[in-house]
Amino acid sequence: MKVIASKCVGCGRCQPYCSARAINFHEGISKISQDLCFECGTCLRSEICPVDALKEADDVFDFPRSVRKFFSDPTTNHKETNMPGRGTEEVKTNDVTNRFRKGELGIGLEVGRPTVGTKISELEKITMALAKEGFNTFEEKNPVSGLMEDTKTGKLKDKVLGERVLSAIVEFTIKESELKKCLEVIATISKEIDTVFTMDLITNYDEGMKIRVKEELEKSNFSSRPNAKINIGIGRLNDEEA
Ligand code: SF4
Ligand code: SF4
After folding, report:
1. Same domain, yes or no: 38 and 134
2. 51: Cβ below 6 Å to ligand 2?
């Protein structure tokens, strides 16, 4: 995003709309830091500027700058998934999508938040650390996987590493027996990356409505907030039933 300097009257109305804190005054008018801007489009969509001084930068859809736009602007779709925002159905939808089977678990690492965001290089630290320990069954229909040069090593394309996005989700599956080791890797990663993330652990209830993995989480010092996701009306037949 950019400000047309000749139009801006320096009213400052756009600044609170920016979740990246990218809009600041410079010599009495607003200026947008191209490094901080997520290209989320919120300032423009809010139609807050009284003189129409906000404008999308010409290179916003050029790769690699476009990565910012596709991950941060909910009105654009990722080409990998044809979905907006963080761009994935998410492993959370396993009950209807069958992404992983009994004896397996889905993991989602939701990296970055408004105001904090994340550099793509932080995502690479995560994907490479996971892959190094053998956790490289990354979700195919996920735009972070779409940025990978090599899904075996978790290496992302060099060109995108300097880009910055509002938030992104790293998704993968593991065997239930690997949970302890995977939690150790995630605990180590959490000390090494320069942003915030939350972890989703997706599983089914046991008979007796017990969540077996909860005990393992507690033993590994992970606090948990059990949550159920209910999808109404979007069910479809499993492959075997079709
Ligand atoms: S596009 Fe988003 S991140 Fe960039 S200046 Fe506007 S509100 Fe801030
Ligand atoms: S709202 Fe428009 S005129 Fe006011 S500071 Fe922002 S860009 Fe300038």
Report:
1. no
2. yes
> For residue 8, is it within any domain?
no
Give how many domains the chain has, as a whole number: 2
List the CATH number of the domain containing 50: 3.30.70
Residue type, 30: S
The Cα–Cα gap between 116 and 42 comes to 16
C-beta of residue 88 within 8 angstroms of C-beta of residue 168? no
Query: Helix, strand, or coil here: 94?
Result: helix
| Structural domain for 211, as ranges | 86-219
The 10s digit of each residue's pLDDT in 157-207 is: 999 999 999 999 999 999 999 999 999 999 999 999 999 999 999 887 767
Digit-coded pLDDT (tens) for 171-180: 999 999 999 9
Cα-based distances in Å from 28 to 10, 24, 41, 123, 164: 6, 10, 23, 36, 27
Structure tokens at 115: 């105001």
76 in a structural domain? no
Output the residue whose Cα is nearest ligand 1's atom 2: 40
Q: Which of 153, 190, 188, 167 is nearest to 119 (CA)?
A: 167
Nearest ligand to the C-alpha of residue 50? 2
